[in-house]
Amino acid sequence: MTAASGFLRSASPRLRHGLTLVALITLGTELASCGSINDKLSAGMGDYVPQWAGGLPADAPPRPGTPQYDAWMRENERRRHMPAVEREKLEQAEKAARQNGAPK
Asked: Which whole-number Å values give the CA distances from 41 to 35, 49, 100, in the listed order?
């Protein structure tokens, strides 16, 4: 028997309930704070996880609010107005370039 368990057994029920309440409140607040920290960190840390470990795929669009996102949206809009035949040729050329290992 440890000293702590001996103390709790000899303490009054009111003190034991008070200590239990303090312990539960402490654990609850710690759990809640971990959840909010992870929410903020996960948005940024997800970009650094390798694709093989479940990270973003290579063809994932950039994050909104960045200059790369604005350029990506302009390119999508330009392609949307392109005739279907030209768009298909462009997509086939990009697919062949990706297969050959050339950058976009």
From this structure: 10, 12, 36
